[in-house]
Structure formats: structure tokens, C-alpha cells
Specification:
The complex is a heterodimer of chains A (91) and B (517). With 91 residues, chain A is mainly alpha-helical. Chain A contains 3 helices and 2 strands. Chain A has a two-stranded antiparallel ribbon with strand order 1-2. In chain A, helix 1 packs antiparallel against helix 3. Chain A is elongated, with a radius of gyration of 20 Å. By secondary structure, chain B is mainly alpha-helical. In chain B, 77% of the residues lie in helices and 1% in strands. Chain B contains 19 helices and 2 strands. Chain B has helices at 3-25, 30-35, 42-53, 56-69, 71-98, 103-108, 114-147, 151-199, 204-215, 229-242, 247-250, 259-291, 293-299, 306-355, 362-386, 395-416, 422-441, 468-485, 489-508, and strands at 447-448, 456-457. In chain B, strands 1-2 form a two-stranded parallel sheet. In chain B, helix 8 (151-199) packs across helix 12 (259-291). The chains are: A mainly alpha (91), B mainly alpha (517). The interface between A and B is large, with 49 and 57 residues.
Chain lengths: 91, 517
């Protein structure tokens, strides 16, 4: 069924693009942590690595909230596809 | 060994036994035993998964590592927290929709072949044993330190307790022990962190300034433990991708009724772990500043007692006894989960499904599960007794490495790749598992020129402590090549037909086969 395939494609594109994004930001931490850029003191004695890490914590909470919101719309889309399928006489 | 310690200790034991007694009344079927009948609520499972994350290694190890090495220790905290997102975005819901009791169930939903199940179950058993030895040896050392009990008696106490929970209360008891422990741990950590913050007038900047002035700027940047990017990148990859491949965490998704509840579980876990691991900074720096590096090192070289020592400084014997009891509860909960996971692989996958073709009655399944639990517990206890003098804490990182290199590629391919087949599944798992074990065995955790620093004296052939940066790509490549090069074209058509069903089920939780045509 066309609508189902479209739904899955849309969902997977969303999931994998976000996943690639946060993994990239995450793995930059151990790479940049050894460069001067994150070793400077930013606020008082708090250095860049701590600030970047705090950023990753906040990113995790934000993306978690984003997913839960987005997933509700996926639930609705999946339900709609199933309804269409049953309407067409699927069992 | 004082009365307060004994009181807290017995309190934990008593509370968990009451929970087990109540759970035992509800544990009659195999589904009750392995997955608590799928009846956990989102917040309950969220706390329980958080409990799985927050092992003794995470609680004692991370705060100790921050106390001794500053930011290098905090790398772990970041890894554990971001790992939630991988679980949430690509693993949790399809896992719940496809599996029944174990990781192997989920894989065989697509490839109903005994070899796939056998390899997956073997991987699970290896991960469980590695993880368990590290936890039990750590437990023995910790209890010896806190209560002055002999190592072997301490290991036996933990061993008997974990076997009791699993044997009588199955997943229901294990989950509630986990929930109790996660709550206690959050409370204890929050209390310590608040007490540390009071000393710094609730100012983060003041705390960092003090550390910088009194201990030196080297603690505020990495470099004390990890001297190069590559070693830390490899370890961070293992943490973030390995969590999604740890069988005792994956098994937790089957304890809820549907994908939606699996989703809310992980969102609870995300908040709990984010809060907990933020607090590790205060525990680590607090211990460094108030207890002092020399005092921490005098108690244990790895700094595992930094948190209890900090508790002693902040609140005397009573608080130290409480934190010690919490650490004890932490170990009990995690090893129980491991026993259950090991039993699921031995009793359900290998005995029930492979040897008996899934033709066991409900009674026989539960009996097999209990027998499996006892056998895995006995093997682990014996190994832990032999490993007393070895530094085995690194075994946990091996478990993460195998999870990331052997299990994660197979899980992702199974859910998302149409052309994946059973040959690919086997090659990916075997390659990931074997390469982790071989490269790990040639690494600095096993070989060190300094006597006593590792298991054998000699030069490590592989300079990486955690070989994940090599083994994860290997696992993915092996899965791809195995699928593409496999000569069994008849099964290819069948595999694609099954995949259509799988895709519907993974995305909707409903089994209908012709919707995706």
C-alpha cells in the first residue's frame, strides 16, 4: 500500500537524520576536548569542555521531548494507514 | 562494622525480600518470569531501566574517576546520557513490537533459524558473564571495605540474594528491586550533591574556581587518563552505541504492554539519568576537595570509595552507612537483572527453542527458567571468587564493546534493511563478538609492562583500551557482506517477503502481511 510505504519512509528519514545529527555532535566532544578551542575558561574557571558537555545534556532532554511529541503524530499516521487498509477490505 | 551500617544493610535486605515475596505470588507463567507479564507502567520501567544504567560502576566508578582525573571521568557521564537517544529513536519501539522475551526472539521474528538464535543467545551469555564478574568482584571489594566482611562471604551473600530474587520473584521482583534502588540512589546522590553545593554557597563557578586554585587546572580539561582523542573516541562510541546492544537493557522493553509504553519508559529514563549524571560532578569534585586525593587512593586505587568517603566527611558514619547501603542495593539490583537475562538466553533460547523446538508446557518453561537462573548464578559466583585479586572493572567496557559491535548492527539491519538475511545476521554477530574479544585480549587492560597493572605482564599489541572504533565498523561491514555474498537465493525471496511483514509490525505493532505491497 502506497500510503504505508510513504509513512515509513517519512518516519525513517526523520529518525535517522536526527540520530546522525546528535551522534555527530556527541562524537565531536572527545575530538574537540583535546583541542585548545574547548580548553579555554569560559565562565570563571569553567572550561569549554564542561559547557559543551552541558550542551549535550540539554540536547538529550530537548530531543527526547521532540521525539515523544513527534511519535504521537506517527501513532496517528499509523492508525490512519491501518484504517485505510481495513476500509479496503484487508483483514 | 557498626550498628547503623548493619541496620541499613538489613533494611535493604528486608525490603527487597518483602518485594520478592509479593512478586512470587504473581509469578506463575514464563511470561511473568521473564517480562513481569508485560504489565509494567512507563514510569516503573523507566526507573528500572535507569536502575540498569546506574550500576555500581556508574555510581561509584564515575564519581571516583571524576575525583581522581577530573573531566576524563565525566566522559562516561556524557556517554550514558546520550545513549538514551539511540535507544529512543531507533531501538525501543521496534524492539517492543517484534520481540517476546529476548533479543534472539526479536531476530528470529525475521529469521526463523536456529543458528541465528544460537549465536544471539551465546553473545548474550558472554556479555552477561563479563558484566556480572565485574559487578560481583566490585561488590565483594566494596562490602569488605564498608562492613569488614571477608571477600568470599561478601560475594556469597550477594550471590544468594540475587538468586533468591530471580528464582522466586522473576522479572517482577527484579524490576521492583531496581525501582527501589534507583529511587534510593537518586535521593542519596541528590543529598550528597546538595551538601557539597552548600559548602560552595550554591555557586558552580565558585566550585570550579576552588578546584582550579587548590588542585590545578589539569582537572578541568581532559588529559589525565586519556592522552589522545582516539582512545576516548573509541570508548565514547562503545558507550553510546553499546547501551542499545546490552541484552539486560533490551529485555526491559518486553516488560511493558506496547510500543507507546516503551517510549514513555525511555523518556523517564532519560530524565532520571540526565539528573543523576549531572550530580556526579558534585560527588567527584566534592570528594577531590574535601576527602583529598591521597585519602581516596589510600582506600582504593580506582577511587571506587570516593562517594562513601565523601558521605563520611559530610554526614559522618550515618550518611556513610546509608550511601554504603545504597551502593549495596545498586549491586544487588543490577546482578539480579543479569541473572534473569542470562537465564532467558540459556533456558528460553537454547533449551526451550533450540533443543526442544519451543514445545514446552508453561510449567516446564518456568522450571527451565529457574534451573537456568541457578546455573548462571553458580557459574558467576565461582568465577568471581577466582577473580578476586584481578582488576576486572574493565570487563564492563568489553560488554559495551560487544553490545555495540555484535548486537547493534544486527538489530538495526533486522529492523531497517530489506536485503538483510540470516547469513548476514550470523556473520555480523560472530565478527563483532570475536573481534572485540581478540582485540580486547591484546589490549592494555590485559597486557601491561608494569607488573600488577593488568592481568599479564607484557607489551599490549593493540594500544586501544576499548577497541570499539575498529570493531563497530567491522560488525556492520560483516553483516553487509554476509548478506550480499550469501549464495542462498531461494531464501532471499522468502526473506524479503518476511521483511514486509516485519516492517508493518515494527512500525504499527500490528501483524498484517499485505499492507506494504
Amino acid at each position: 500500500m502506497e500510503s504505508f510505504n510513504k509513512f515509513v519512509k517519512k518516519k525513517n528519514t526523520f529518525l535517522f537524520s536526527i540520530t546522525a545529527g546528535f551522534l555527530l555532535l556527541y562524537i565531536l566532544l572527545p575530538i574537540l576536548a583535546f583541542q585548545p578551542v574547548l580548553q579555554q575558561k569560559v565562565v570563571g574557571s569553567i572550561t569549554g569542555v564542561w559547557v559543551y558537555s552541558a550542551g549535550l545534556f540539554i540536547m538529550t532532554i530537548v530531543l527526547c521531548t521532540v521525539y515523544v511529541k513527534k511519535a504521537s503524530s506517527f501513532d496517528k499516521a499509523a492508525a490512519a494507514v491501518l484504517a485505510e487498509y481495513h476500509a479496503k477490505g484487508g483483514k | 562494622m557498626n550498628l547503623v551500617s548493619v541496620g541499613f544493610f538489613l533494611g535493604i535486605v528486608g525490603l527487597t525480600l518483602v518485594v520478592t515475596y509479593i512478586a512470587a505470588k504473581r509469578t506463575s507463567s514464563a511470561s511473568d518470569f521473564y517480562t513481569a507479564g508485560g504489565g509494567l507502567k512507563g514510569w516503573q520501567n523507566g526507573f528500572a531501566i535507569a536502575g540498569d544504567y546506574l550500576s555500581a560502576a556508574a555510581f561509584l566508578g564515575v564519581s571516583g574517576a571524576i575525583a581522581l582525573t577530573g573531566f576524563d571521568g565525566f566522559f562516561f557521564s556524557v556517554g550514558y546520557v546520550v545513549a538514551n537517544l539511540v535507544l529512543l529513536y531507533v531501538i525501543a519501539e521496534p524492539m517492543r513490537n517484534l520481540g517476546r522475551f529476548t533479543l534472539a526472539d526479536m531476530l528470529t521474528a525475521r529469521f526463523n533459524e536456529k543458528r541465528v538464535r544460537g549465536v544471539a543467545a551465546t553473545g548474550t551469555i558472554i556479555i552477561v558473564i563479563l558484566y556480572m564478574i565485574a559487578q560481583l568482584v566490585g561488590a565483594g571489594a566494596l562490602i569488605k571495605l564498608l562492613f569488614g566482611i571477608e571477600y568470599w562471604i561478601a560475594v556469597l551473600i550477594v550471590g544468594v540474594m540475587m538468586t533468591t530474587y530471580v528464582l522466586f520473584g522473576g522479572m517482577t521482583a527484579t524490576s521492583w528491586v531496581q525501582i527501589i534502588k534507583a529511587s534510593l540512589l537518586l535521593f542519596g546522590t541528590g543529598l550528597l550533591a546538595t551538601l557539597v553545593l552548600i559548602k560552595f554557597d550554591f555557586s558552580l563557578v565558585k566550585m570550579f574556581d576552588t578546584i582550579s586554585a587548590d588542585h590545578g587546572d589539569q582537572f578541568l580539561v581532559p588529559g589525565l587518563k586519556y592522552t589522545s582523542s582516539i582512545d576516548s573516541v573509541s570508548m565514547m562510541m562503545a558507550l553510546v552505541l553499546g547501551t542499545s546492544g546490552l541484552p539486560h537493557i533490551l529485555m526491559r522493553f518486553f516488560t511493558v504492554k506496547d510500543a507507546k509504553t516503551a517510549r514513555s519508559s525511555i523518556s523517564w529514563t532519560t530524565w532520571i539519568t540526565a539528573i543523576f549524571f549531572s550530580l556526579t560532578i558534585f560527588l567527584g569534585f566534592g570528594a577531590m576537595h574535601f576527602v583529598g586525593l591521597d585519602n581516596i587512593l589510600a582506600e582504593s586505587k580506582a577511587g571506587n570509595t570516593a562517594a562513601p568517603l565523601l558521605a563520611n566527611y559530610l554526614g559522618g558514619d550515618v550518611l556513610m552507612a546509608f550511601i554504603g547501603a545504597v551502593a549495596f542495593a545498586t549491586i544487588l539490583a543490577v546482578v539480579s537483572g543479569l541473572v534473569l537475562t542470562g537465564a532467558s538466553a540459556i533456558s528460553h533460547d537454547i533449551y526451550g527453542e533450540i533443543m526442544k523446538d519451543g514445545k514446552l508446557t508453561e510449567k516446564q518453561q518456568v522450571l527451565a527458567a529457574r534451573t537456568g537462573s541457578i546455573s548462571i548464578a553458580i557459574v558467576s559466583i565461582i568465577l568471581a571468587l577466582f577473580a578476586q585479586s584481578l582488576n576486572v572493572s574493565f570487563l564492563v567496557s568489553f560488554a559495551f564493546c560487544i553490545g555495540a559491535s555484535a548486537n547493534l548492527p544486527v538489530i538495526l539491519y533486522t529492523i531497517y534493511w530489506k536485503k538483510f538475511n540470516s547469513t548476514g545476521a550470523v556473520t555480523a554477530m560472530v565478527t563483532g563478538l570475536v573481534s572485540c574479544l581478540i582485540l580486547g585480549a591484546m589490549g592494555p587492560n590485559v597486557w601491561s609492562p608494569v607488573e600488577g597493572a593488568a592481568i599479564f605482564v607484557g607489551k599490549p599489541l593493540v594500544p586501544l583500551a576499548v577497541p570499539a572504533i575498529i570493531t563497530i565498523p567491522l560488525g556492520f561491514i560483516a553483516g553487509y557482506l554476509g548478506s550480499v555474498l550469501s549464495t542462498n537465493k531461494v531464501s532471499q525471496e522468502e526473506a524479503e517477503r518476511v521483511y514486509k511483514e516485519i516492517r508493518v509490525k515494527a512500525n504499527t505493532g500490528v501483524s498484517v502481511s499485505d499492507i506494504s505491497h
